[in-house]
TrEMBL record:
<dbReference type="InterPro" id="IPR005845">
    <property type="entry name" value="A-D-PHexomutase_a/b/a-II"/>
</dbReference>
<dbReference type="GO" id="GO:0005975">
    <property type="term" value="P:carbohydrate metabolic process"/>
</dbReference>
<dbReference type="Pfam" id="PF02879">
    <property type="entry name" value="PGM_PMM_II"/>
</dbReference>
<dbReference type="InterPro" id="IPR016055">
    <property type="entry name" value="A-D-PHexomutase_a/b/a-I/II/III"/>
</dbReference>
<feature type="domain" description="Alpha-D-phosphohexomutase alpha/beta/alpha">
    <location>
        <begin position="379"/>
        <end position="489"/>
    </location>
</feature>
<dbReference type="InterPro" id="IPR005841">
    <property type="entry name" value="Alpha-D-phosphohexomutase_SF"/>
</dbReference>
<dbReference type="InterPro" id="IPR016066">
    <property type="entry name" value="A-D-PHexomutase_CS"/>
</dbReference>
<feature type="domain" description="Alpha-D-phosphohexomutase C-terminal">
    <location>
        <begin position="541"/>
        <end position="578"/>
    </location>
</feature>
<dbReference type="GO" id="GO:0000287">
    <property type="term" value="F:magnesium ion binding"/>
</dbReference>
<feature type="domain" description="Alpha-D-phosphohexomutase alpha/beta/alpha">
    <location>
        <begin position="256"/>
        <end position="354"/>
    </location>
</feature>
<dbReference type="InterPro" id="IPR005843">
    <property type="entry name" value="A-D-PHexomutase_C"/>
</dbReference>
<dbReference type="GO" id="GO:0006166">
    <property type="term" value="P:purine ribonucleoside salvage"/>
</dbReference>
<keyword id="KW-0460">Magnesium</keyword>
<dbReference type="Pfam" id="PF02878">
    <property type="entry name" value="PGM_PMM_I"/>
</dbReference>
<dbReference type="InterPro" id="IPR005846">
    <property type="entry name" value="A-D-PHexomutase_a/b/a-III"/>
</dbReference>
<feature type="compositionally biased region" description="Basic and acidic residues">
    <location>
        <begin position="1"/>
        <end position="12"/>
    </location>
</feature>
<feature type="region of interest" description="Disordered">
    <location>
        <begin position="1"/>
        <end position="23"/>
    </location>
</feature>
């Protein structure tokens, strides 16, 4: 006979269940699930959890495997709250405290409201006005709902709330925070994550952050203070929500953003043919508007990926960096005879660039755009091109400023800054750090993020970056040259810097920590035949940077590898860079040979790191 308290017939039955933890009071756990269901605010989420609870508590002996699976799923969903940190919230959409859902978002909004009121004081105290928050959202499933819930909670708490008029790119929200003098911004998006995910980014500005980080994403200690306020919030059902009282902004805020981007236009005659793709995200309309008004009349969008679609039907993974994500755009570019491809990720804060490069054409096997020579530029290549372009303009105007990139990005940007007499800064990974650099005029990270207009957007912006790439390619075409030729020029000036990435995705999150521990205990002694000259643990801090989880490896020939866990995905990432000297008068053939040699060395480094990490 089955015990209804435990759900098992006997101890042997319980021991056979892989989801059963003998150290857990199963009855108390199921009561906790039931309590969450009662306190949830969404009927569909309640029903979802009830179905799992009924399966987990089944007394039917024929349902042993189903019961075990349901219990394991519940244990995962209730393994703890979805952690709020410098990336805000991000996770799979489903019911339960360890998922993205209305209950979790409502409690997050309540915590943010408490933080703002504690920081700024209630309206009217000492003449203070209400805290102001701008809320934006993308076109993912439930994004609009999460945005409305946030507006309702913050309004009820006494906060002035301004909501963007429709699903829009993240850079528009970052722009609005600064333009409207908001004390905080909330963007509901999971950026380039899979379709099942959603997220909650928080920006601070106005009277809360008044230094160079005004309008940027949160960093410590703000994240911990907001997280503590969220933890103190009671059940979602008890959180007050207003039925109205917030303001839905007009389209003028989008127009103002577009005008700020168009102020970067060089006004040159346009000869470029561009292919664009929004990857089913929210950037398509805004990018088209910017390029059209900047004079680019020959723009071919990938029609299948132009309109927002939260299911991302034409890509396995909606991230331009992922294999296959750009194949459709490259095929369109080849058929259209385009000069360049500009791709945004789903929330349009990143920009991928692809070009025709005869060096990489193989003409072997099935004919594709890639086999013919179309390739994506690495984020470090685009960062170098944009950094040099911005630095030239700043130096030509007699201005000053700082170029900045993350610690895992190429060392080339520092050489470019020095060549133009500008400052340079290295930061921790993430634009929450890059955008805070004093005097910033350009910042980037190798993961396709570029900040070309920090005066207006203190974050990566794939739309303004797309305009500047198009302009640079347009000027080069007028000279009979390409972006690849410009990269060769940088190699002649500063040496050939070639970078790549090795990453491993884990389903068992414990393996991420185990992998990092293994590397620290047994780092490689050689990479691609060169002796390792230095191994630095970034968790102890390095070169003035705050501590972070990572390891830097340098070799005698100048190769650099940095290994770190991803901050937004269940991955361990290795960032690889080799540097080869190049003569100032090196020919095209010399550069071709040098690139092939660098690629071969990178491949050897990658193989050595796979072995070192036990992948």
């Amino acid at each position: 006979m089955t015990d209804r308290t435990t759900g098992y017939r006997d101890a042997a039955d319980a021991a056979d269940d892989p989801a059963f933890d003998p150290g857990t009071d199963r009855s108390a756990f199921l009561e906790r699930v039931a309590a969450w269901i009662d306190d949830d605010v969404d009927a569909d989420d309640q029903d979802e959890l009830r179905r799992l609870l009924d399966l987990a508590d089944s007394s039917d002996p024929r349902q042993h495997d189903v019961r075990a699976s349901a219990l394991a799923e519940l244990q995962d969903r209730f393994s703890g709250p979805l952690e709020f940190g410098t990336a805000g919230l991000r996770g799979r959409m489903a019911a339960g405290p360890h998922r993205m859902n209305r209950a979790v978002v409502i409690r997050a909004a309540a915590g943010l409201g408490t933080f703002l009121l504690d920081t700024l004081g209630p309206a009217g105290a000492g003449g203070a006005s209400r805290p102001r928050v701008v809320v934006g959202f993308d076109a993912r499933h439930r994004s609009r709902t999460f945005a409305v819930d946030s507006a309702a909670v913050l309004t009820a708490a006494g906060v002035e709330v301004l909501v963007l008029p429709s699903a829009l790119p993240t850079p528009v929200l970052a722009f609005a925070v600064r333009r409207l003098g908001a004390d905080a911004g909330v963007m509901v998006t999971a950026s380039h994550n899979p379709p099942a995910d959603n997220g909650y980014k928080v920006y601070l500005g106005g009277r809360v952050v008044t230094d160079s980080g005004q309008g940027a994403q949160i960093v410590p200690p703000y994240d911990a203070r907001i997280a503590a306020a969220i933890a103190a919030v009671g059940p979602a059902r008890a959180v007050p929500r207003a039925g109205s009282g917030w303001t839905v902004l007009g389209h003028d805020v989008v127009d103002a953003y577009v005008r700020s981007v168009l102020a970067l236009s060089d006004g040159a005659p346009r000869r470029l043919k561009v292919v664009t793709t929004a990857l089913h995200g929210v950037g398509g309309e805004t990018v088209a508007h910017v390029l059209r008004d900047a004079g680019f009349t020959t723009v071919v969008p990938v029609e299948e990926q132009l309109d927002p679609n939260p299911d991302f039907p034409s890509v396995a993974f909606p991230n331009p960096e992922e294999p296959g994500a750009m194949d459709l755009a490259l095929a369109v570019a080849q058929d259209a005879g385009a000069d360049v491809v500009l791709a945004n990720d789903p929330d349009a804060d990143r920009c991928a660039v692809a070009v025709f490069d005869p060096r990489v054409g193989t003409y072997q096997g099935a004919e594709t755009a890639r086999s013919n020579g179309w390739r994506m530029l690495h984020g470090d290549e685009v960062g170098a091109l944009l950094g040099d372009d911005v630095a030239r303009r700043v130096a030509a105007s007699g201005g000053q400023g700082v170029l900045a990139c993350s610690v895992v990005s190429s060392r080339l940007l520092g050489k470019i800054a020095a060549a133009h007499g500008l400052g340079f800064a290295t930061t921790l990974t993430g634009f929450k750090w890059i955008s805070r650099v004093d005097g910033l005029v350009f910042g980037y990270e190798e993961a396709l993020g570029y900040c070309v207009d920090p005066a207006h957007v203190r974050d990566k912006d794939g739309i303004s970056a797309a305009l500047l790439v198009a302009q640079l390619a347009n000027r080069l075409k007028a000279e009979g040259r390409t972006l690849v030729d410009a990269l060769d020029d940088l190699a002649r000036q500063h040496g050939l810097h070639v970078s790549d990435q090795l990453s491993a995705r884990f389903t068992d999150l414990d393996r991420i920590g185990e992998t990092m521990t293994h590397l620290r205990a047994a780092p490689p002694r050689t990479l691609a035949g060169a002796g390792v000259s230095d191994v630095a643990d970034l968790s102890a801090g390095l070169d003035g940077l705050p501590p972070t989880d990572g390891v830097r490896i340098l070799t005698a020939d100048g190769t650099r590898v940095i290994v770190r866990p991803s901050g937004t995905e269940p991955k361990v990432k290795c960032y690889l860079e080799v540097v080869l000297p190049v003569a100032p008068d090196a020919s095209h053939d010399d550069l071709t040979a040098a690139r092939a040699a660098a690629r071969a060395r990178l491949d050897r480094v990658k193989a050595d790191m796979q072995r070192a990490l036990g992948l």
